[in-house]
Amino acid sequence: MYTRMKALGSLCVIAIVLTGCSSGPAFRPDPKPTAVELAETAPEDFAIAVTVYSVMTDRANWSTLPRPRRPARYVLEPDGVLRAAVGPSADRQEFPPVMRELSPSDVEDIWRLVQTGGLFKADLPGIIGSPRELIVRRSRPTAMVELAGAGERRLIATPLATQDTPAPELERVIDRLAMLAWQPQ
Q1: pLDDT at 166
Q2: Measured between alpha carbons, how far is 73 from 61 in angstroms, rounded to an integer?
Q3: What is residue 89's DSSP assignment?
C-alpha cells in the first residue's frame, strides 16, 4: 500500500513538473507581424515599454548625451500610468516606479509619434521574436521597444541614431517619454 501511494505521488509530481516545463515564453510576439490598422486615437490596449542601453555607464557624463540616448527604461501602461527608471541599471527586467499618470492628450501624443514613426509596420527592420535575440553593442546606443496596441504586439531592437543608422522617429518617442517623466534636457 505504502509503495503504491509513493509511486502515485511520484507520478503526480512528475506530471506537474512536466506541465510547468512545457509552458512557452511569457512574451509571445505575433508570429508573422501584420500591419496594424492605426486609428486616429490610441486603442484601449496601447502600451509601450522602451529600454535604452547606452554607451556611457558613468553617471557624471550622462548630461553630455542627448536625452533619448541616456540609459533608461520607460513604461507607458494602457491606463496612462508612466513608469521610469534612469541609469545603467535600468534594464528590461526592472519594473520602474510610477512617475505620473498621463493625461489622455499626452497618451495621444505618444500614439501619434508611434504612428508617424511607423513602429507598427509589418516590415519594420529590427523586429525580433524574443528579448533573448537582443545583442547590445556597448559601442552604440541601442533601444528595445515593446509595443502593444489594437490587439497586436511588437518587439523591436534597434540601434539609435549614429552616423550610419539614423532612428529619429524612435528618438522622438523616447524623448517625449523622457520629458513626460520629468527627465532634464
Answers
A1: 47
A2: 18
A3: T
Distances (CA, A) of 62 to 56, 87, 157, 163: 7, 9, 22, 20
Whether the Cβ atoms of residue 38 and residue 150 lie closer than 8 Å to each other: yes
DSSP string, 111-157: HHHHHHTTTT-TT-TTB-SSGGG----TTS-EEEEEEEETTEEEEEE
In the chain, which residues have pLDDT < 50?
2, 5, 7-34, 164-166
Q: Are 79 and 58 in contact (CB under 8 A)?
A: no
Quick: pLDDT tens for 112-163: 999 888 887 777 766 766 666 666 555 678 888 999 998 888 888 888 875 5
How many residues are present in the chain? Answer: 185
In sequence order, the 6+-apart residues with CB closer than 8 A to the CB of 99 are: 82, 83, 84, 180, 181, 182
Q: Which H helix or E strand runs over 98? A: strand 98-101
Domains, the chain, ordered by start = 27-180 (3.30.1560)
Please tell me the pTM assigned to this model: 0.74
